[in-house]
């Protein structure tokens, strides 16, 4: 029996979903039925169900523990050409912290709880008991492989340590940090006051309510964020841009709301400048 097939059957017996990898440690290509994702590309769906195709054509979603499938004709052909065995960590209730080089390994030893570690070609795999969302490049040289991902199988016999429960320190690595928000740049143009120096608005409350409504409009945008930001800047300037009541603080609030929706400081500045130009301010 093929060595990779034997290993796959042993893993499947332990309820670890497996699949073959071809040269380069990559999954086999789509089967004819699914060429160019004609089937809809099941691995991109937010499910963990197995691929229903006859062959191992969908990476982690093709991983299975069914020995009849693993030994079927199409899979047999794949095992004969395979260069390694892979598995779906999340399907086995595991998380792999893939450390790609020595610096990443040093960081893990200083910051993560000890667990089973298995050497790789360039670094180590740290195995934890528990599943989580997968994430790439959470730190330099550090990937997390669990749900909706596959990892190359490396025999635990070559590793050391006892497997630990998945710690919060690893889960936290996959949490996206909010974007760093910058205030409006000092060089931003704020319209000068009217010549008579008097604001036509009766109270500061009117301006405050207008800025708050503008912030809400930007924050509530679900699509076309850049266009929404520009239109909001245009509305604020058309109402308050000629009387001189706007300050850098007000502009900073608008920029902060826009950046929280993913706009860059450059986009904010361009939108503000374009609005000024449109209104002739």
Describe the structure.
The structure is a single chain. The protein is 35% helix and 14% strand. The chain has helices at residues 3-13, 67-70, 73-81, 102-111, 168-171, 204-219, 225-240, 248-260, 265-279; strands spanning 18-22, 26-27, 84-87, 94-99, 116-119, 124-129, 135-139, 142-145, 151-152, 164-165. It is an alpha+beta fold and 281 residues long. It is elongated. The longest helix has 16 residues, at 204-219. The strands form 2 sheets. Strands 4, 5, 6, 7, 8 and 10 form a 6-stranded mixed β-sheet that branches. It has 9 helices and 10 strands.
What share of residues is helical? 25-40%
Oligomer: single chain
| Mean pLDDT over the residues | 84
Our count of helices gives: 9
Count all strands and give the number.
Answer: 10
Distance between the termini: 80 Å
Helix and strand element order: HEEHHEEHEEEEEEHHHHH
Strand content: 5-15%
Q: Structural class, from secondary structure content?
A: alpha+beta
Shape: elongated
From the alpha carbons, calculate the radius of gyration and give it in angstroms. 28 Å
Biggest sheet features? 6 strands, mixed
> What are the segments in which pLDDT stays under 50 over at least 5 consecutive residues?
43-48
List keywords for this structure.
single chain, alpha+beta, 35% helix, 9 helices, four-stranded antiparallel beta sheet, elongated, 281 residues
Can you describe this structure in just a few lines?
This protein is an alpha+beta fold. It has helices at residues 3-13, 67-70, 73-81, 102-111, 168-171, 204-219, 225-240, 248-260, 265-279, and strands at 18-22, 26-27, 84-87, 94-99, 116-119, 124-129, 135-139, 142-145, 151-152, 164-165. Strands 4, 5, 6, 7, 8 and 10 form a six-stranded mixed sheet that branches.
């Amino acid at each position: 029996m093929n060595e990779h097939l034997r290993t796959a059957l042993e893993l499947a017996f332990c309820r670890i979903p497996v699949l073959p990898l071809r040269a380069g440690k990559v999954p086999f290509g789509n089967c004819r039925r699914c060429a160019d994702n004609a089937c809809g590309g099941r691995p991109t769906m937010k499910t963990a169900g197995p691929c229903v195709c006859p062959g191992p054509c969908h990476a982690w979603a093709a991983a299975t523990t069914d020995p009849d499938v693993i030994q079927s004709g199409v899979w047999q052909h794949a095992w004969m050409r395979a260069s390694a065995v892979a598995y779906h960590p999340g399907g086995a209730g595991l998380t792999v912290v893939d450390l790609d080089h020595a610096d990443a390994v040093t960081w893990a030893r200083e910051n993560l709880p000890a667990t089973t570690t298995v050497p790789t070609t360039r670094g180590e795999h740290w195995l934890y008991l528990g599943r989580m969302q997968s994430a790439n490049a959470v730190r330099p040289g550090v990937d997390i492989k669990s749900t909706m991902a596959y990892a190359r199988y490396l025999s635990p016999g070559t590793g050391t340590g006892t497997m630990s429960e998945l710690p919060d320190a690893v889960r936290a690595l996959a949490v996206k940090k909010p974007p760093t928000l910058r205030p409006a740049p000092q060089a931003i143009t704020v319209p000068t006051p009217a010549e008579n120096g008097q604001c036509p608005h009766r109270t500061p409350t009117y301006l405050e309510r207008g800025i708050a409504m503008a912030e809400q409009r930007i924050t509530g945008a679900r699509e076309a964020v850049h266009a929404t930001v520009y239109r909001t800047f245009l509305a604020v300037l058309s109402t308050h841009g000629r009387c001189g009541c706007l300050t850098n603080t007000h502009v900073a609030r608008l920029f902060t709301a826009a950046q929280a929706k993913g706009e860059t400081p450059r986009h904010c500045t361009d939108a503000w400048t374009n609005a000024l130009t449109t209104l002739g301010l």
